Amino acid sequence: MKKVVYTDNAATTPLRPEALAALEACYREQYGNPSGLYSVSRQAKRIIETAREEIAGIIGAHSDEIYFTGGGTESDNWAVKGAALLRRDGGRHIITTAVEHHAILNTCEFMEREGWSVTYLPADEYGRVEARQAINALRRETALVSVMAANNEVGTIMPLAEIGKAVREAGVLFHTDAVQAAAHIPIDVNEMHVDMLSMSAHKFGGPKGVGVLYVRRAVKLPSLIQGGGQERTLRGGTENVAGIAAMAAALKASANEPEKRVSTMRDRLIDGILSAIPGSRLTGDPLNRLPGSASFIFECVQGEYLIAQLDREGICASSGSACSANFSGSSHVLRAMGISDELAHGSLRMSLGLQNTADDVEYIVDKLPALIEANRRLSPVWSVPPR
Ligand code: PLP
Q1: C-beta of residue 101 within 8 angstroms of C-beta of residue 198
Q2: Of ligand 1's atoms, which has the minimum distance to the CA of residue 208?
Q3: Residue 1 — pLDDT band, cuts 50, 70, 90?
Q4: Confidence (pLDDT) at 384
Q5: Is residue 155 lining ligand 1, measured as CB closer than 6 Å?
Q6: Cβ(154)–Cβ(337) below 8 Å
Q7: What is the Cα–Cα distance from 257 to 251, expressed in whole angstroms?
């Protein structure tokens, strides 16, 4: 069988065994609709409430602050549009960053079409945004500040606690998209001073299509999905019982398994690539980055072609954001970090996970230099590859 080295854990992760066991148990035995009044339904309801308590405990929240959603995109939409509805009489201004995922950026653009104004905070060369920038952008009519906890393309971890503290002091709602951060770095909603926080199960070994929006008790977020009264009337629709149970199982397992081994592999991957390949550089914050995140720019390289070359060697990686693989053009994150379109074409994102091994890393470090050389030779765009 062909060797497969999967290094695209920022796009999605393989299911953890604990999550698979929870899914199987639910699908085999817990078919009840949690809204029913008989024992089979009550069992399903209990599974959901246990998951809610477990997830709340891991992020320092109360269980009645956890709302289950259909994933990160829905949680982000709910946070932004819900906060806008809640605070619309106070003004119509939102602050976010230029390096957010499209789940936030496109929602903010929607709000702009609805007559809101949005400030997109610029990032520095590492993709970082500082608290003072958020403070300087605050207006009397600001309804919401939304800053991601960690970036999906370059892995930069934001100084969230500082930003949250400053925003809280200003009395403005603060949301974070923690889809890439949750389960990979410690998350505490109190230390981060967040009012709302988005998570997505498939980024930490859970199934796709299920997530969480944490909403602080004091925030009376309106519902965007009306229905049968589920999630304390705020998010209608029969609950994804198996997905919710599996998400909690994956998060619990991750909380018991710090990612030191992953960051050690990441460091070896970064060192191995940068020392073997001329004209290469790391993107994102060299120190404050997600444990699995290794992202690069290679001069005079065609990123899309590189992905195909890697695929032929069984290596799965991405160029820019996987969620934007359907769009051509260079990454908005790299652009916001001041990287030219030309250079951004040669971007590569590798995100390691718990399933990767030291052998995987050596395999990549061994294969990549020749692939880059071939890419530079074949690419019609470049005439003088770096030496
Ligand atoms: N936010 C970030 C930072 C992401 O990386 C992603 C997915 O890549 C999302 C939101 C969307 O999450 P989901 O795939 O669960 O809708």
Answers
A1: no
A2: 15
A3: confident
A4: 52
A5: no
A6: yes
A7: 10
* 38 alpha carbon – ligand 1 mean position (Å): 36
Q: How far is the CA of 73 from the centre of ligand 1 (A)?
A: 6
Give me 59's structure tokens: 């992020």
Q: What is the DSSP pairing of strand 211-215 with strand 66-69?
A: antiparallel
Q: Based on the residue annotation, tell me whether 323 is a catalytic residue of this protein.
A: yes
Q: How far apart are CA 345 and CA 163, in angstroms?
A: 32
- pLDDT given at position 380: 61
| pLDDT of 165 above 50 | yes
Which tokens belong to 20?
């698979």
Ligand 1 pocket test: which of 74, 77, 78, 179 has the largest number of ligand atoms within 8 Å of its C-beta? 179
Q: Would you give the distance in Å from CA 19 to the centre of its chain?
A: 19
Per-residue model confidence as pLDDT tens digits over 264-305: 999 999 999 999 999 999 999 999 999 999 999 999 999 999
**pLDDT (tens digit per residue) in 323-379:** 444 555 789 999 999 999 999 999 999 999 999 999 999 999 999 999 999 999 987
Instruction: Return the percentage of the chain with pLDDT > 90, whole number.
Output: 91
The alpha carbon of 14 and the centre of ligand 1 are apart by a number of angstroms equal to 15
146 lines ligand 1 (CB under 6 A): no
The structure's pTM equals 0.96
